[in-house]
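Next up, a chain.

===
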Amino acid sequence: MMRIHVHSYRMIVFLFGLALSAAAAGFSCPAPATPLAGVSPSTEPSVVLADTQLASIKVEPVGQHAFPQQMQAVGNIDFNQDLLTQVFTQYQGRISNAFAKVGDNVKKDHPLFTIESTDLLQAESTLISAAGVLELNTKNLDRQKSLFKQSAAAQKDYEQSISDQQAAEAAYRAARGAVMVFGKTDAEMDRIVKERKVDATLTVPSPITGLVTVRNASPGLFVQPGNPPPVYIVADTSIMWMIANVPEREAAELKVGQEVTARVSSYPGHSYKGKIVTIGPNIDPNTRRVFVRSEIADPDYDLRAGMFATFVITLAPPKMALAVPLDAVVREGDGSMTVWTTEDGHTFFQRVIKIGLSNDGCTEVVEGLKAGERVATGGSIFIANQYANAGN
């Protein structure tokens, strides 16, 4: 027969008595704990929506999106100083006519202004004189040649006439060259010689095709070569400059040759392409910014110097990353970003995420979600309000 230790026997009797007392009082074994409303067994806050509430909710899987790696900045449009030409007169004189006005588009060799030049007057007078001397010496040579053939003139006289004619011809060519420097054509010089009439008017043409941006010309104004201010300034506006100052913290990402897309408020919806051509070597000690200059193509001549512009610099090729629509993200009171995930379409779990780049209505998910997970992309604010109203 098994013996029972006295202490163990007393413990069994005590427990048996407790059981009988509980049965007599009507108690049973406690049931498993029920989760609080709005709290998931996975520790993520959750909300269960009714079928009627789901009508305003849109659910989509997390997928990949191409995010351009870009930097935004602001600046001002300016003329391309490398394509801007100051127009001076080559010879001194008084302006007789000024044809082009500020804002006019002129073609290359289009007349800008005329001057009455005493230098041109002298050159044309020399040309007429040289033409007369050449004509005289040419006739004398023909006469001496005829006499020499008839043995009616000495050989030295014939040779002297040849020398005189050659000298006169050289002087005439030099005189034509001097007049040609002023821009006179062969036809104009032939007319001057034929009519024995000088034309002291010197026409100064535009050296390039472009826009007249400055005019200092007026009839009667005496001008000299190279003396400021220039009579005209003509700018080629097919390529403009964009001048910007980029914060120092972003300077390391800039490189010459990076593509730029510029926009101005005058032409909403239209963009202008270009690239960075100059990055300043110094940081401004007052603003802590670096000077950046870009060349912007303007084939339609829309841009004007001084226009305020925004531009986007493409730093690198697009980056593929996990992304959700911006409407899916809820900013919480503590500054954290959350989304609402679901598996069955009824129960939604709050998930804290980290976001990165944003573009085209999407935001990059750096941390907190995996590809293929389903999130509320429409109605996420409604779900967050439901959770808050539940007393959580």
Remarks:
- The chain has a mean pLDDT of 84.
- The chain has three domains: 46-67+319-389, 88-233, 236-318.
- The CA atoms of residues 249 and 289 lie 8 Å apart.
- The chain has five helices and 21 strands.
